[in-house]
Design brief:
The protein has 71 residues and is an alpha+beta fold. The chain has one domain (2-65). The chain is built from two helices and two strands, in the order H-E-H-E. The protein has a two-stranded parallel ribbon. Helix 1 (2-15) packs parallel to helix 2. The chain is globular.
């Protein structure tokens, strides 16, 4: 959350994009058996980041759900 709030979000806001494409992969999700990142991001956290992006950018956004493969 620190990196999102203090690094990524300010860069997005300063850039003022006309359109944001979000590749919505969930490899960082808590409990994902295929995740190797160990980030343990909760559903509430993903929701918070989405809300903050929409609130701060006030621009068109496209969210694309990624799919992986089961092993």
């Amino acid at each position: 959350m620190f990196a999102f709030e203090r690094i990524a979000l300010p860069v997005f806001v300063d850039f003022k994009p006309d359109l944001v494409l979000v590749s919505a992969g969930f490899d960082a999700a808590k409990g994902d058996p295929l995740a190797t990142t160990g980030l343990d991001v909760t559903a509430d956290c993903f929701g918070y980041m989405t809300s903050r992006l929409r609130e701060m950018l006030q621009t068109k956004m496209i969210f694309v759900l990624e799919g992986g493969s089961l092993i």
